[in-house]
Each structure stands twice: as C-alpha cells, then as structure tokens.
Amino acid sequence: MSLPGHMDALISVVSAANPSTIVVMQSGTPVAMPWISSVKALVHAWYGGNETGNVIADILFRKHEILDLLVLFLFGHGPSYTTFLFSDLKVQKIDKDLKVTVKVSNTGSIAGNPSIRRPKKELKGFKKVFLEKGESKVMEVIIETKYVTSFWDEIREAWISEKDSYEVIITRSSEGVGAVKGSFEVEKTVRWNGL
Questions:
Q1: Interatomic CA distance for residues 56 and 43, integer angstroms
Q2: Angle ∠(115,121,124) on CA atoms, nearest 5
Q3: How far apart are CA 166 and CA 62, in angstroms?
Q4: What is the pLDDT along the chain (195 residues), one digit of tens a residue?
Q5: What's the CA gap between 136 and 45, in Å, rounded?
C-alpha cells in the first residue's frame, strides 16, 4: 500500500523543509501515508476523469475567490522582478474562432516575461513573451469560440455554448491588477458532443 518508488521519502523530505506542504494524491486505491502528520493538508483526488485537473485547481487556487479571502500568492503570481502594462485589447470573432490581441509593455527596470490569463472563472488561454526593459509587443491568442464558452451539462450529456455576452479579461494573475477588458457575444445557444 506504499506509494511507488521514493515518493514517501520525497514527501517526508519536502514537508520537513516546508511545514506548509500540501500533498495532492491521485490514486484509485487505499494508500499508506506515513508522512500524513507532517503535511499541512492532503487532497486525495482519486481518479476523477477529464475534469480532475480543473477541480484540483478550483480547490487549490480559486476557493479564495468564492470566499473573498486574501491570498498571498494568487494564480498567475510568479517570480517576475519587473512590471507590465496591458493595453489596446482587441476581441474579434472570426468565423468559429475568438481572436484576442493585446499590447504588453515592460514598464519596469529589467527584462521580463509576462503571461496573459483570464482571472477568476476559467483560464481559457495564455501566451508568454520575453520583453526587454521598456519594450512592448503585441500578443495574440486564438481559440475556437465553442471551447471558450462551453460547459458540460450532465443532464443533457452534452457541451453547451450559451447565447450570452462574455467578458474577456487580460491580466498577469487572477488578482486582476492592471487588467484590460473586452467582450464578445454568442448569438445562439448550441449543444455539441465530441471534440
């Protein structure tokens, strides 16, 4: 019932070095956990299917948004030692795709590489670029609209893209500081299966 290889030893060493260690375990059977008293928390994910990763991210990164809690390191927080400005956001629907373009400027004193994300709700796309001090570049993300707007309806056993107005938020982290916003419309509700 032990974890494979040196996993138990690895968890013990990491938790000894960092008492705030959280273990996320995916296993379909009972597992011995000799290190359980040395970790801050355990998320036992079992085998949850296609949405396992999203659910784990919701638990670990997004619960603070629901409860409006102050979090020290938000989703998207990273070791960048410079600052960025997002501007000139353009959101275009082109046939079945959604094209999001934004100008990113390095406003800090050293080079760095931001990534663009949609905070809260769902991360639908991201891109990274390296910027020298004072440099700006236009970043573009293209994703098929049905993948941006759809959710799984368990009752109908189908993906649904609902008729609605959708907001696009471009920012460096889920905190949303310096975000630029745009929107687009889905004119008709569509249900679909498969890819």
A1: 8
A2: 45
A3: 20
A4: 888 889 999 999 999 999 888 888 888 778 889 999 999 888 777 777 777 877 777 767 666 666 666 554 555 555 567 888 889 989 888 888 888 888 889 988 888 877 655 444 677 888 888 899 999 999 888 888 888 888 887 778 889 888 888 888 888 777 777 888 999 999 999 998 987
A5: 41
- Where are any strands of DSSP class E within 3-135? 22-25, 41-44, 84-94, 97-106
**pTM of the full structure:** 0.48
Joined tokens for residue 170: 């471009």
Structure tokens given for 61: 């990164």
Question: What 8-state DSSP symbol labels residue 132?
Answer: -
- Of residues 81, 62, 86, the one with CA closest to residue 177: 86
56's CB contacts (< 8 A; 6+ apart) are 24, 43, 45
Which amino acid would we find at residue 162? E
State how far the Cα of 168 lies from the Cα of 176, in Å rounded to an integer: 12
**151 membership: H or E segment, kind and range:** strand 150-153
DSSP for residue 3: P
